[in-house]
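tool_call: predict_structure(chain=1)
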Amino acid sequence: MNEKIIKEIVNDYSLRELQIYSSFILSNIDATNNIIKQFKADHDSHQFYKNVIIWYVKKNNIFPEDILTFDFVLNDGGLGDRFVITSNILNTFNEYNCVGNVNFYIEIEKGRSKYKELSAETFYDVIDFFHFKRPKQKIVTHVKNKWLKQNDVMMSNVEKDKKYEYFNELMFSENGHYWPIDFEPKSKILVSYMFYMNGEENKSINDFMMNKFKNLIQKFSNLKFQRLEDYDFSKNVKLLSQSHLLIASEGMWTHLSRAMKVDTIAFTDLTEFINEFNSQGHFCSDNFDDCLNILKTKCINLPK
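tool_result:
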């Protein structure tokens, strides 16, 4: 980008804009003494602000007003929560066709189960882990060596100014607008399932309910029923790509199935999720027998 044009644009910023943009830039870089020295402007604060912005634009080829910034906690909250937040961030960057900044909080809470941990150095690693298609927009990761609660970060994201309105709509919508999954379509040969047993609040089933499910699927010897993996995300993408449908406790895998446009039957007693699934053309109920009846009907109608 031509430095003369950059300077002309920056010179048109108001003092307030200079302060906001330079503060944003300094708060999102490793502002060591050596870096700060290059912005020196002989006690001229206006010029200092401009020097910071000009340096940033030359380095990233983008003006600060064209950037959206989100916070993302790598290892807090459920896997499904992080999947949805990642999807919503990508959809928002795409909606505004802008460069994205992600403040990437990588510390891990003491005592957290290792099976819930993600290992990533940049936000692109998270995108790849979830098998989301990479966006055309550039994303800049700012690693933060601290831990935050996911719920606090979610609220900080939705409480931003009007530029973030689309993200807010996605967070509180029942439409289920997921960012596309990068997978190779396969021939449909499976009926997949995954239930949480005796523990997950609001969506677990017990042994009696599980036996009902097993008795039902035994009646369909012509179909192959496949339990999803507990933690192997890549394998579950492959299994769902081969699935006619999924029946499962509401959670990570019912997010993934819907993102992959796989017909989904979900069990939970949370009204907001029941409404969400059913408004999307899937099925969700707090009555497990109803879920099994829908599964039975769908299995009868599957091609032999």
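agent: The first strand starts at residue 67 and ends at 73. Proceeding to next step.
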